[in-house]
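At this stage, I put together a protein sequence along with its fold in token form, as given directly below:
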Amino acid sequence: MAAWRYSSARGGFQRQGVSRENDMAKTFKFTRERQAFAQLKHEVENNPGLREDIEQTLQQLLGRFATSIRENRFIVGGVLEVILVTALRAAGVQAQDVGMTEQRIDIKIPQGGFSVKGHFSSAGDIRLINVLGASSETAWETATIFVLHKVGIGYADPELIGREHIRRATDAIVLRYTALRNFLEQHPQYLIQCAVPSSMQDTASSELVSRVVAKEILKDTKILVNYIP
């Protein structure tokens, strides 16, 4: 009987005991995404400068903007998308930022794409899809890169995570954080080891994105610049 073995180099499970032609003919829905993530993982873990850049950008982002503040939460998510697009491109992956134009993916790669999710606490659920007003048939169908506090940068897709770990809440489809963390611990080929800080807890000290943008715009005025609060 043929057996299945995962090959990170080939981005999926490969069947042993069959011809190479039949093996190559077997395709998986998320093959391209797994290959791209494997390439990113290899580059980050073998290029200290790239890892340092990623960790530095995450530290600056999460050290300035508390995600417990609603307006910051959305902007931090958008910045994460740009950081990961940039990291993928640095790793040699043809990645495009499509978060403004696509519904389900934030990063497009040839013949595939990723959603990006950040989770900066050690508990709770991870929101995969906002479904307020959406069809009851809406489901998680997207390869996803997760930026996780104290864990690293992980990958998962609907073929890897059991349905029992996903549920529909009032306004979102969510994934249990502990289930994802356990999956990544058991399958290290889907985890990039790097430092991901928690979001700053002191909201009083946090910057607000709207104020940062406002000050950036006002600094070029002649009169208003003297009255910026």
In short: The chain has one domain: 30-122+142-164+177-227. The first strand starts at residue 3 and ends at 7. The chain is about 35% helix and 20% strand. Residues 1-6, 11-26 have pLDDT under 50 and may be disordered.
